[in-house]
Amino acid sequence: MNWLEKNTKPITVGMIVLEGSLIMVIELLVGKYIEAYFGTMLTAWTTTLGLTLLGVSIGYYLGGRYSVYAKAVSFLSIPFLGASIALLFAILLLPYSVKILAATENLHLSLIITGTIGLVFPLVFLGAIPPIIIQLITKNEAQSGESTGIVYSISAITGVFSTLITGFYIIENFGIFYPLVFTSVLLFIIGSFLFLLRAKRSTIISLSIAYFIGLAFIVNNRLELQPINANSTIVHQEEGMLGQVKITDFPLDQNNTAFHRVLNINNIPQSIVIGGDQAATSAYKYVHLVSSILTSHPKGSNILLCGLAAGSLVSELNRLGMNVEVVDIDPRMKTIAEDYFNIDSSTYKFTEDDARHFIMATDKKYDVIIIDISASESQPTYLYTIESFKKIHETLNENGTLIVNFQSTFSESPMNAGNLIFQTIHHADFSVKGIVINKEIKDDIIYIGKKGSPFSFEDIDYNRMNICCIQNQFVQDYIMKKVFVRPKIISPPVYLCDDKPLLESLKNQTLVKNRTKSAKTYK
Questions:
Q1: pLDDT at 366
Q2: Could you identify which of 100, 204, 422, 435 might form a hypothetical disulfide with 487, taking C-beta atoms 3.0 to 4.6 angstroms apart as the criterion?
């Protein structure tokens, strides 16, 4: 009896710890990779969870079927080596699977292919480990229940710890690519050690040579998805639990003397700024329209801005002489706005918090509250419910203004995301009007809710408008034409509430459209 066979129990405990930890590491890393290119919409999230469970379930079944052949711990070499090689192929193929979306415009097909490559194949092998270990440590039928409970509880507990470590430390400090590579190498080393106990050294040496040659090729030829504009430059990129952040400069002329600087979260633009402008002039129409609308409030008004992004609205509000407070759940935005978009930290107060939590907890009053939040193409649905808007109503001073920038559409159907947002704000006792930014496609809506008398374009103080807004023909057209959208009134009233989170499913068409457009931009 060799050393390994004498120490079966402590070694199998170690294998359980590794299996439980690495399943969650792979799920989280691949899930964040999927999120970077497919977004945080419900479709992507449910696909990730579903394929994770599918892979592990198949592994449990196969592990149970073949556990009867497991006579020693060395049998575990097969699932460990299989998981390592499957993960290595996943690292190689994942970028190519993302390209399928750009080629076919089929979001669901691309999601399933990407999730199958990155999650199902590696997790089938890891899922086979617990049944094999249960077989190894169970001495008689009476112990089977106890053995099963021990194995799965240890696996689950270690999975919790690995999830926290991966989410709060590994991804933020090391990204996604290299932790995936390290996970594959760790699995291969463990599998090779176990394999040495049941096969000739020459076999594992040959396998190791092939594996590390493949690993070197993948690392040296790592495929990065780049913008289709060959002259564009990625200025900054980082991974995190709240998504991948990427800052890209796109030239506007052949000499690169003018450019747009774009802030992307999960490859969806959040801000586009005219490059080189120390005042961070936005290329987005709605920023200048909101700035012009807020000339209806006097200098020194207290404004709460929910969502910072690159700080374009902060710049506009500072030019108007407002007191600006910003709340954003992602602390990286403050650093990015100040380091890459020339926002002065002394011109606003920043709080790291969820916007709804901040509003629910604060006892401060504001003259204006602006909601301009999106996580890539998705928006936090719980911020647009009747409960949230009623608390915002209480938090505003008399004659206060609520402005909401929402990416969706108005349509002929009353049960449309754009219409229901309007109805919900109205039901929270606001006098509300809506402006569609892109009239041709009816996308991107500005809602203006007032306590008291409704907003009128006559309230705008033309003399206080920022020069960039005065020069913006889009803004001028709206001020002159005074065009508001008129949603269909639903009777009896239908509005969004915490108990019925309908918003994401209602705006799914817009989400898919934005994600498909992103895939064509980054290839």
A1: 96
A2: 422
Tokens standing for residue 235: 């200025």
Q: Give pLDDT, residue 2.
A: 47
Using an 8 Å Cβ cutoff, are 337 and 261 in contact? no
Helix spans in 221-326 (H): 285-293, 312-319
| Residue 130 to residue 154: CA distance in whole angstroms | 10
The model's pLDDT over 99-111, given as tens digits with 9 standing for 90+, comes to: 776 566 677 788 8
pLDDT tens per residue across span 65-90: 888 887 778 888 899 999 999 999 99
* Best-predicted range by mean pLDDT (87-91, 147-151, 221-225): 87-91
Q: What is the DSSP letter of 41?
A: S
- Cα-flanking dihedrals φ and ψ of residue 297, to 5°? -105, 145
Q: Can you tell me the distance from the alpha carbon of 237 to that of 255, in angstroms, rounded to the nearest whole number?
A: 25
Give the amino acid at 488: K
Instruction: Please give the model's pTM, rounded to 2 decimal places.
Output: 0.79
Chain mean position to CA 166: 16
- Whole-angstrom Cα distance, residue 509 to residue 514? 9
Residue 259: strand pairing partners: 251
- pLDDT recorded at residue 27: 92
Distances (CA, A) of 146 to 16, 137, 338: 15, 10, 57
Distance CA 133, CA 176 (A): 30
Helix (H, G, I), strand (E, B) or coil at 307: coil
Average pLDDT over residues 53-72: 89
**Residues forming beta bridges with residue 72, ordered by sequence position:** none
- For the segment 152-166, what is each residue's pLDDT rounded down to a tens digit? 888 899 999 999 999
Mean pLDDT of 45-74: 88
Q: What are phi and psi of 25, to 5 degrees?
A: -60, -50
C-alpha distance from residue 104 to each of 98, 108, 377 (Å): 11, 10, 20
Give the pLDDT band of residue 94 (cuts 50, 70, 90): confident
Cα 250 to Cα 230: distance, rounded to the nearest angstrom: 9
Looking at the chain, how many residues does it have?
523
Contacts of 73 (CB under 8 A, 6+ apart): 4, 5, 8, 11, 12, 15, 136, 194, 197
Q: Which H or E run contains 436?
A: strand 431-438
**Tokens representing 328?**
């954003």
Reduce the DSSP state of residue 134 to 3 states and report it. helix
